[in-house]
C-alpha cells in the first residue's frame, strides 16, 4: 500500500473499469520491470494505492500484468478498504467510549466534590476538600493543585494552599478521601505574583477572567522566583464572583508527565465556578460571624462599664463617708497610744484599733484607686526601673515564700506614665503571683519592645509557676471584689486593669493549667505611638 508511483504511465481504465496505473521501467542492465497500482478509496476520497511489482513466470521471467490480474487487484483493494474502514470505525468508537468514560468519571467526581463542599462553611476546610478533589485519583486526578488569592490592596496573587497527590489513599472511595487532612501539602507562603500584563499565565487568567492552558514548549512556565516547582505544562482557571476574580486554581501533572487533555479543562472550570461561590460565601459567613462576636463583646463591655460605673459611684460614696470618721478614730487611737503605758492592759486594745484602722485605710486607698478618684501625675519614666523599685517592696515577702525571681529586662525607651500607678499595677501582679505560689516557685519578669500597627509599645510579662487559674473562674479574675482567697478585697487585678486602661494599654492573661499564669501588660510609648498620651 503506497502513494502513486512517480513517472509511471497510466494505462487508464475503460468506462466500465475503475482507474488504475500500469507501466514498466528498465534498469541499468536493460531488464524490464512491470508494476500495477489500483486506488484505495475511503468514503469517496483517494487515500492511497495498492501496488504490485514484477509478475514472475514459472521460468523466473518478468511478464506484464493482464486484465485478470487487474481484476484480482481491484478485488483485493476492495477487501482492504473494507477492513481499513472497519478498523478506523472501531478505533473511533473505542476512542469515543474512552472519552465518555472519562467524562462520566469527571462528572461523578464533580458531583461528589459538590456534595462535600456543601457540608461546611469553614474556609480552610473547604480549601482542603477542593484540593483533595483535584488531586485524588478518583477525583479529577491531577498530580498537583494550588490555590492562590487575589490581594486587592497590593494587586498581587498570594499563595493560600497547595497539595500533591496522596498515593496512600487511592484505594479509599472519594467520598472518604475528600475529608482527609492534606498529607502532602505544598508550601506557598512565599508565593507573591504581581497581577500585571505579560507576567505569566496566572496574572493573565486574573486580568482576562478566563482559563489559560500553559503549553510545555513555552519557556518560563512559572513566574520568576517560583522555578523550583518545575511546572512544564499547567492549567490556570480563575475563581470569578460577580465579574470579579478572587483567585486562581493551578493544576499540573508534574510528577507523572502526562499531557493535559483539553476536555479536562472543562471539568476544572465547572469545579472552579462552584468553588468560587462557596469560598466567597464562607468568607462572608466568617466576616459576619466575626462582626457578631465583636458586637457581643462590645455589648458585654458596655454592660460591664455601666455596672462598674454604678459600683464605682457606690464605692466612692461609701469611701468618702467612711474616711472622715476613720481619720478621727485613727488620730485618737494614735494619741491614746502615746498616753497609755507599755505594760498597761489597755495597750493591746489600742494596738488592735491602730492595726484595724491601717487595714481600713489601705482598703479605702484601693477603692479610690479603683474608682479613679486619686490624682494622676504623668511624666517620662524608665519602666525597667519602676519594676526594680516595685520588686524591692515585695522582696522580703518573696524570700519568705521561697520564690526565686528571674529578670529578663530589655532596654526600653522612656514611658510617659504615672509612676505611682504603674508601680501599683506591678505590685498587685507580684503579690498575686506570690499568693499563687504558696509552696514556693519561680517569678519571671520579662520586658521587651513591641511593634503594633499604631506604633511602638513596651511589653511586660509577669509569669509564675503556681499551677494556673481554674477555667471556671478565669473569666471573673478582672471583676471587682472577686477573689478565690479567704482574705483580700478582690480589687488587685481590677485596679491593675483600670490603671493600664487609663494609660491606653492592655493587660492580657495566658493561663496554662498545671504550669502557671502569665500576665502580659502592653503600654504605649507615646513618642512613637499614634494615640495621644494621657494628661
Question: How would you describe what is shown here?
Answer:
The chain has 535 residues and is α+β, with helices and mostly antiparallel strands. It has 4 domains: 99 residues, Beta-Lactamase (2-Layer Sandwich); 143 residues, 2-Layer Sandwich (Beta-Lactamase); 65 residues, Orthogonal Bundle (Helix Hairpins); 151 residues, 2-Layer Sandwich (Heat Shock Protein 90), CATH 3.30.565.10. The protein is 43% helix and 23% strand. The strands form 5 sheets. Strands 6, 7, 8, 9, 10, 11 and 12 form a 7-stranded antiparallel beta sheet that branches. The chain has a 5-stranded mixed beta sheet with strand order 14-16-17-19-18. The chain has a 3-stranded antiparallel beta sheet with strand order 1-2-3, covered by helices on one side. It is rod-shaped, with a radius of gyration of 45 Å.
Amino acid at each position: 500500500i503506497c502513494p502513486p508511483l512517480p513517472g509511471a504511465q497510466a494505462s487508464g481504465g475503460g468506462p466500465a473499469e475503475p482507474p488504475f496505473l500500469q507501466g514498466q521501467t528498465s534498469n541499468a542492465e536493460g531488464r524490464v520491470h512491470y508494476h500495477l497500482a489500483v486506488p484505495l478509496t475511503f468514503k469517496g476520497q483517494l487515500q492511497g494505492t495498492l501496488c504490485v511489482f514484477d509478475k514472475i513466470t514459472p521460468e523466473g521471467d518478468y511478464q506484464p500484468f493482464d486484465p485478470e490480474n487487474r481484476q484480482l487487484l481491484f478485488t483485493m483493494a476492495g477487501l482492504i478498504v473494507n477492513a481499513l474502514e472497519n478498523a478506523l470505525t472501531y478505533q473511533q468508537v473505542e476512542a469515543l467510549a474512552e472519552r465518555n468514560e472519562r467524562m462520566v468519571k469527571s462528572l461523578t467526581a464533580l458531583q461528589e466534590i459538590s456534595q462535600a463542599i456543601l457540608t461546611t462553611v469553614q474556609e480552610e476546610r473547604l480549601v482542603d476538600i477542593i484540593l483533595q478533589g483535584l488531586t485524588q485519583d478518583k477525583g479529577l486526578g491531577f498530580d498537583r493543585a494550588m490555590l492562590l488569592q487575589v490581594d486587592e490592596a497590593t494587586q498581587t496573587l498570594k499563595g493560600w494552599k497547595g497539595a500533591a497527590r496522596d498515593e496512600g489513599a487511592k484505594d479509599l472511595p472519594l467520598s472518604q478521601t475528600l475529608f482527609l487532612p492534606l498529607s502532602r501539602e505544598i508550601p506557598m507562603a512565599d508565593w507573591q505574583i504581581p497581577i500585571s500584563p505579560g507576567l505569566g499565565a496566572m496574572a493573565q487568567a486574573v486580568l482576562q477572567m478566563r482559563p489559560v492552558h500553559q503549553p510545555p514548549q513555552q519557556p518560563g512556565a512559572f513566574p520568576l522566583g517560583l522555578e523550583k516547582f518545575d511546572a512544564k505544562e499547567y492549567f490556570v482557571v480563575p475563581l470569578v464572583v460577580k465579574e470579579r476574580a478572587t483567585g486562581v486554581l493551578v493544576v499540573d501533572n508534574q510528577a507523572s508527565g502526562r499531557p493535559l487533555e483539553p476536555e479536562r479543562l472543562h471539568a476544572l472550570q465547572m469545579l472552579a465556578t462552584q468553588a468560587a461561590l462557596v469560598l466567597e460565601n464562607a468568607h462572608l459567613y466568617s466576616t459576619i460571624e466575626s462582626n457578631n462576636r465583636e458586637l457581643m463583646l462590645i455589648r458585654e463591655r458596655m454592660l460591664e462599664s455601666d455596672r462598674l460605673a454604678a459600683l464605682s459611684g457606690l464605692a466612692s460614696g461609701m469611701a468618702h463617708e467612711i474616711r472622715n470618721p476613720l481619720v478621727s478614730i485613727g488620730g485618737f487611737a494614735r494619741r491614746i497610744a502615746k498616753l497609755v503605758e507599755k505594760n498597761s492592759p489597755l495597750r493591746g486594745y489600742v494596738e488592735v484599733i491602730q492595726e484595724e484602722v491601717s487595714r481600713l485605710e489601705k482598703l479605702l486607698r484601693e477603692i479610690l484607686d479603683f474608682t479613679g478618684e486619686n490624682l494622676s501625675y504623668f511624666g517620662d519614666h524608665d519602666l525597667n526601673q519602676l519594676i526594680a523599685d516595685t520588686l524591692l517592696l515585695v522582696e522580703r515577702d518573696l524570700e519568705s515564700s521561697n520564690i526565686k525571681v528571674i529578670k529578663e529586662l530589655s532596654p526600653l525607651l522612656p514611658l510617659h506614665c504615672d509612676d505611682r500607678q504603674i508601680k501599683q499595677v506591678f505590685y498587685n501582679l507580684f503579690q498575686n503571683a506570690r499568693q499563687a505560689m504558696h509552696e514556693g516557685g519561680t517569678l519571671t519578669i520579662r520586658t521587651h519592645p513591641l511593634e503594633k500597627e499604631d506604633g511602638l509599645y513596651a511589653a511586660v510579662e509577669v509569669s509564675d509557676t503556681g499551677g494556673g487559674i481554674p477555667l471556671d473562674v478565669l473569666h471573673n479574675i478582672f471583676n471587682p471584689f472577686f477573689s478565690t482567697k479567704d482574705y483580700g478585697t478582690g480589687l488587685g487585678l481590677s485596679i491593675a486593669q483600670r490603671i493600664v486602661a487609663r494609660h491606653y494599654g492592655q493587660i492580657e492573661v495566658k493561663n496554662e493549667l498545671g504550669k502557671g499564669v502569665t500576665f502580659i501588660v502592653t503600654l504605649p510609648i507615646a513618642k512613637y505611638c499614634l494615640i495621644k498620651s494621657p494628661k
